[in-house]
Amino acid sequence: MDPLENTTTTGLGERIRLLRGKRGLKQQDLASSEISASYISLIESGKRAPSESVLAALAERLGCSAEYLRSGRDDHELEEARLRLAFGEMALRNGSNGEALQTLSELLTRPSLLDVSMTRRARMGQASALEKLDRTEAAIAVLEELYRDPDLAPGSTEWCQTAVALCRCYRDAGDITLSIEIGERAMSRLDALGLDVTVDHVQLGATLMASYHMRGDLTRAQLMGGKLLDAAEKQGARAARGAVYWNAGLVARSRGQLNEAMALVERALALMSEDDNLRHLAMLKMNYGSLLLQVDEPEPARGKQLLEEAQQLLAEVGNAPELAQCEIGLADADAMLGQWDEAAAHAERALGLTGTESRIQAVGARGTLAEIQLMRGNFDQAAQYLQAATRQLRQFRPSHQVALNWRYLGDLWKRQGNTAEALKAYDRALSAAGMAPHRDPSQIFTEHHRS
Fold it and tell me: In what residue span(s) does the HTH cro/C1-type domain sit (predicted)?
């Protein structure tokens, strides 16, 4: 076919009229025993919508496809767009996030080639690539636009996937409150619809559960976990069940129930080991390896093996913060094995991965370097790392994770011999956990009399 320029945005009738003129045909040349010239005139003026059989007959006479008349896209262009979309999605699955982003972004610059479903898929893939490239704010902007689309039906798979991604991205960006609000509203909407529980619903609940855990709301996270486990078991989907066990393990770990956490994470690993989501598998192995370093009888060699396996997977599908967290785990494992130089190298790599941005992983890396120096007896160098970690941690908003890091720095300051800094860190840990300091009654009395 010889496609016309600037016709993809015109109506069906206008496309027929323009193409007929280009072919040098009159309305009666398109007529037949089933289609009158007057009917063609009504179609061209937009006063009648042809049936599929009439559309196919007109397309044959005009030497084009019915799809071209219907949408302005010829079959060749449409097939090329489908192939480009499939290529972008495949690149995303294979961990080629930059290539996926470029392919999908270029495709979205030609919206006339995409139908509604293809556009949503391309935008969702674009957001996923941005998230994996650690461009979280840009991913949120795309997801917010998708989530506000009035044609996105609540309860549909696309709607659930968008809600999950938005909840996760706000959490990773540090806005845990908004992450929880989005997750809770989405769960309430699903409950109000009275739909059967699906894998997508379970994944939404698991994401919300992770946000509860990060905020330090362990009771609510545990309750959500119990509810989700029943639903996930009924679904029978291994990946969904694995996600719930994974998050339940993280909650148990935060409660200090390390043996229970180990059992839950082992169960999650068994369920998700056959899944094709390499990122989930990598994160599970990283968490499992880290747990092996924290139990009453640590297994640093086995933990290191799992962390190395996670590192290999994250090199393909992970982002910089995830890789940094894995390097910190490897540093801890090597330190427990007495391999100080290797441990320090891992911690330095973690710092390099965090870059110039303020990330909680940078605090952990500096804490690990301080701990290594303490083990070596280099107290002055340890103090330098601790001072840098303390300055950086002050920039973060209160959360359960921040409280844990303040407690960690307090313990390190105590070992370093600086009791004053240790007490400050412990005080900040309590504040970050939501425990306000008790006000001195004598101070209230003094203020009252001054007024």
Answer: 16-69
Mean pLDDT by 10 residues, the chain (451 residues): 42 87 88 87 88 88 81 72 90 86 91 82 93 89 94 88 92 87 92 75 83 82 78 68 80 81 82 69 82 85 93 84 92 93 94 82 94 93 95 88 92 95 95 76 54 52
At the top level of CATH, the class of 12-72 is mainly alpha
The CB density around residue 59, as the number of other CB atoms within 10 Å, is 19
Residues 6+ apart with CB under 8 A from 265: 245, 246, 249, 284, 287, 288, 291
Q: Please provide the DSSP assignment of 58-113 as one string.
A: HHHHHTS-HHHHHHS--HHHHHHHHHHHHHHHHHHHTT-HHHHHHHHHHHHT-GGG
Amino acid letter at 50? P
| Residue for token pair 């045909």 | 25
Cα distance between residue 361 and residue 319, in whole Å: 12
* Tally of CA atoms within 13 A in the half-sphere of 105 that contains its CB: 13
Return d(Cα 154, Cα 192) in angstroms, integer: 10
For residue 430, what are the CA distances in angstroms to 281, 389, 406, 415, 448? 34, 18, 9, 19, 28
pLDDT tens by residue, 15-66: 888 888 888 888 888 888 888 988 989 988 888 888 888 888 888 888 877 8
Q: Could you count the other beta carbons within 10 Å of the beta carbon of residue 449?
A: 7
At 435 the pLDDT is 80
H/E stretch holding 145 reads helix 136-147
Question: Is the distance from CB of 108 to CB of 121 less than 8 angstroms?
Answer: no
Q: Over the Cα atoms of the chain, what is R_g?
A: 29
Query: CB within 8 A of 108, min separation 6: which ones?
Result: 114, 119, 122, 123, 126
Amino acid present at 224: M
Give the Cα separation of 217 and 210 in Å (integer). 10
How many other β-carbons are positioned within 10 Å of the β-carbon of residue 145?
A: 12
Q: Are 133 and 98 in contact (CB under 8 A)?
A: yes
Give me 121's structure tokens.
């898929």
